[in-house]
Design goal:
48% of the residues lie in helices and 13% in strands. The chain is α+β, with helices and mostly antiparallel strands. Helix 1 packs across helix 6, helix 3 packs across helix 4 and helix 11 runs parallel beside helix 19. The protein starts with 5 loop residues before the first helix and ends with a strand.
């Protein structure tokens, strides 16, 4: 095998293993994007309530997303996901270039690329792989005896300059990056190189200036998520169990490093820093070793770059391969701490189909409830605020405090929480809607003692039971609902459920041609998406999004009213099941006793709507399975949809 092909093979393996995670959407990512849209539109970093608050863990990712939006880029969510993919691929390419060109180095690279978290986070999104790439480049360059190249000088400067520049960027990519920068600067200072001292002074002044500007703008030293995820966390809580299970999935990487390379304790520094962060933070509901991943990548590459490999026999290599194979089959746990499990049995044979599937929409139940129930310019209080924070004409109050520093500080004082929150909301109008969440039968919903709540409406969510409360009688108008769905779809057109609700809202308000145009564009863009495949049929006879895989398909269907002005731009889309080779007969009739058409359906078949024969401005279409041929069975299902007239 040519070693020049190794980076390409590493990237190919990462794509195949990680592609199934591409449609996944992380709700916390949408908090950052809500801030990015506000920053690009107004020039202010503030939440939808108007509060200036540092609620994003990665200012670097926020800045890049804001620049993308300001330059007119479409769908910042896709932009940050693609950025995560590029950084994940760059990390494994860097690792492939730095590991020794030996059997041990090849096994180590295999262990890293097949470790479940790196594939997951490369394609699921978030700033995890951005941070991992910066740490890997920074620490591997810093600890390598020769810097980046044999001469110690690379395209971006000398080894000390490049390493400190990468760690400086890591400091604004995640808060713990500041600790990595400080430790890296200490290592270089101990070495006493003149180039290193100059680089430390320059980057140190730049980092100090950055923090001074940040504190002067936000008015506090620590970001608000620090208060929620670290300051208010039991230091000996469930995060220890999660950390322990995650270490077991590192068995393959650890075995190769300890057996195949000489021990280099300094290379463990980035991994140990991330261990400290995880053990001090609350248990991570996202799972997939999110906290450990950047430190693991940096330690693996730095260790391999600064320690000569050992010569191992075939039996030793075979044993390491067996351990790597076992570890690669394991998936780190989520916050439930039920233990590690086997990786999901993804279909790895056709990775491209995952990229032809629309993205998921997080907190969809909350979003639909808010869009269609919250009066315009009202406030809504709930715990999960990522996607809801992007809804137009509503102010989201974060009951946890990630985007509300006053609430976050109140939860830090168990004895004075009630008084603090009462003072926080005294004089403020009551929100229109409140949602509290019970994550399991034995859990308690977060209290809101400063509000007098009516009877709750329990709603079953995928993660538990939502207790919904309506505090006002007002509701948005149909036009306001339409504006909200349109704004969400314009902001995140790659999310299939948003496209579904936006399109059905257009159809409900009589804009069927526009709805068919959106549906046609979505199905062309995401041909492998089952939800969007069903969308044209929901335009004809609406059905719920949960029934998209098995849409309502009786032998006799009556469609929604079709306005006279829309009929000239629409065609009827017909399909039957099962589909014999010779096709099936379906009749089409206007509800106003217009002409009857008989259509032989072979696969998805489109036909112009029958000629208008109604005195009314709207009409309906009736479709019915038909058997006019002897010994031909009726189809079990008839599907009728609306599409654009070609």
């Amino acid at each position: 095998m040519s070693w020049r092909l190794l980076p390409l093979l590493a990237v190919a393996a990462l794509v195949v293993l990680g592609a199934p995670a591409w449609p996944q959407q992380i709700d916390d990512q949408l908090i950052t994007l809500a801030f990015a849209h506000e920053w690009a539109a107004t020039g202010h970093l503030r939440w939808g309530t108007g509060e200036v608050v540092e609620a994003c863990s990665s200012f670097l990712q926020l800045s890049l997303a804001t620049a993308w939006i300001a330059l007119g880029g479409e769908d910042a969510n896709l932009f940050v996901k693609r950025l995560a993919v590029l950084c994940g691929c760059a990390t494994v390419v860097f690792a492939a270039r730095r590991v020794p060109r030996s059997a041990v180095g090849l096994v180590l690279l295999l262990a890293l690329v097949t470790w479940e978290p790196i594939a997951w986070w490369s394609f699921a999104g978030m700033e995890t792989t951005i941070f991992a790439l910066l740490l890997t480049v920074g620490w591997a360059t810093l600890l390598s005896p020769s810097g980046l190249t044999p001469s110690g000088v690379g395209l971006l400067g000398s080894g000390p300059v490049l390493s400190l520049a990468a760690l400086w960027l890591a400091a604004i990519a995640r808060p713990e990056g500041n600790l990595h920068y400080a430790l890296g600067a200490l290592v270089l200072a101990v070495r006493g190189e003149s180039r290193a001292r100059r680089a430390i002074v320059v980057t140190g002044i730049a980092l100090f200036t950055w923090h001074a500007l940040r504190v002067s703008y936000f008015g506090h030293v620590f970001p608000t998520p620090y208060l929620v995820k670290m300051a208010a966390t039991d230091p000996f809580g469930p995060q220890w169990g999660q950390w322990g299970w995650e270490l077991l999935t590192l068995g393959g990487i650890g075995a190769v490093l300890l057996v195949g390379f000489r021990f280099r304790p300094l290379a463990l520094v980035p991994f140990l820093v991330q261990c400290v962060v995880e053990l001090r933070a609350e248990a991570d509901w996202m799972g997939h070793a999110r906290y450990l991943l950047p430190g693991v990548c940096a330690t693996v590459v730095a260790w391999a770059a600064c320690a000569p490999p050992r010569a191992l026999g075939r039996r030793s290599l075979a044993g390491l391969l067996a351990i790597v194979g076992l570890a690669s089959a394991l998936e780190p746990p989520s916050v439930t701490l039920e233990g590690i499990a086997l990786r999901s049995a993804w279909d790895l044979t056709t990775p491209s189909r995952w990229f032809h599937t629309a993205l998921d929409t997080t907190q969809l139940e909350d979003v639909t409830w808010i869009v269609e129930s919250a009066p315009w310019d009202s406030a809504v209080m709930l715990e999960d605020v990522g996607m809801p924070g992007n809804v137009a004409g509503v102010r989201i109050i974060d009951l946890v405090g990630l985007t509300d520093r006053g609430i976050a500080l109140a939860w830090l004082d168990p004895e004075g929480t009630d008084a603090s929150l009462r003072a926080r909301f005294s004089g403020a109008g009551a929100p229109a809607l409140v949602r509290r969440m019970k994550y399991g039968d034995d859990s308690f919903a977060r209290p809101v003692p400063w509000l007098r709540l009516p009877s709750a409406q329990p709603v079953t969510y995928p993660q538990g039971t939502a207790l919904q409360f309506r505090l006002t009688k007002g509701r948005p108008t149909p036009e306001e609902i339409g504006r909200r769905w349109a704004a969400l779809h314009a902001r995140y057109p790659s999310q299939g459920p948003l496209t579904w609700y936006y399109t059905l809202d257009l159809a409900r308000r009589g804009h069927l041609v526009d709805a068919a145009r959106v549906a046609a564009a979505a199905t062309r863009r995401f041909p492998a998406d089952r939800l969007l495949e069903a969308l044209p049929y929901a335009l004809f006879a609406p059905f719920d999004i949960d029934d998209s895989h098995e849409p309502l398909a009786p032998l006799r269907q009556t469609g929604r009213p079709i306005p006279r002005a829309e009929a000239a731009g629409l065609a009827l889309l017909l399909a039957v099941e099962p589909m014999p080779d010779e096709g099936q007969l379906v009749t089409v009739r206007w509800s106003c006793d217009g002409p009857v058409s008989t259509v032989l359906v072979r696969g998805p078949t489109s036909m112009p709507l029958p000629g208008w024969a109604c005195s009314d401005d709207t009409a309906r279409i009736l479709v019915e399975g038909l058997d006019q041929r002897p010994h031909r069975p009726l189809p079990r299902h008839v599907y009728a949809g609306l599409t654009l007239l070609e």
